[in-house]
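Next comes one such specimen:
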Amino acid sequence: MKVIYTTCTYNHIARAFSLADSVSDYCPDTRFVIGLIDESGGDHKGNQQCEIIYAKALELPFLSEMRNKYSVLELNAALKPYFADHIFKNYTDLKELIYLDSDILLFSNLETIYEALAENSIILTPHSLSTIKRGYSFDDRSFLRAGIYNIGFYAVKRDETGLSFLTWWMDKLKDEGYIDSNKGMFAEQLWLNLVPIYFSDVHVLRHIGCNVAYWNLHEREISATQNGYVVNGELPLIFFHFSGASISCIIDDNLSSHQDRFTFTNRPDVLPLFEKYIAK
């Protein structure tokens, strides 16, 4: 059995359904789970391939406390490992688990990730593999503030190391999952800087087709082929992270509200990806 999960609010469930559709396209034998942080939601019967788990199903005695002290964004981030723990406990035959943010689409299968999981307990992707020139709203200093690794993706195996990692992460995010750059805090993401030090069998996935987004487009160019999209004419595009993209991003000529470096004018190669994302 294979499971991919995401977390979101009900207001963003349409994005999660789009991700689910792409999972169905490229990983048809995979179960897709949506962790909803809302206490309740509307009618979601339109997508029968998804299992939806509400945060209350986690049965956390401190959930109300987390709701009171965290913003919606922080709570969504803080509950990621708790949903993972819940999934492992309820799918007793599940050997590994992949997380993807709801603003991601797959463009290929995930065999590269499963191959890495066969030899490792935890898989992380760095924001970038090379330095970014200064002069725009984000550069290398952004990674020092927000984290080396991007938590739009991670994968974990059900073994001693993987489960210990989830336990450690849950403990941190119960009270320290907030965003405050003055205190060196950036929700759940910045904690990942410590994972390769504190845990063994951690693999930093350097595949240029994984977690492609505005933060690494300076080193990655997308092109279309008969067999799908490729990165730098070399490796398949596996998944693209549309972080900060809005419904009007093409009209606004801005890939993401989080940056000012790239536009569709200077990066027309990514336009077809965003057109597909918005159309969904």
The mean pLDDT is 95.
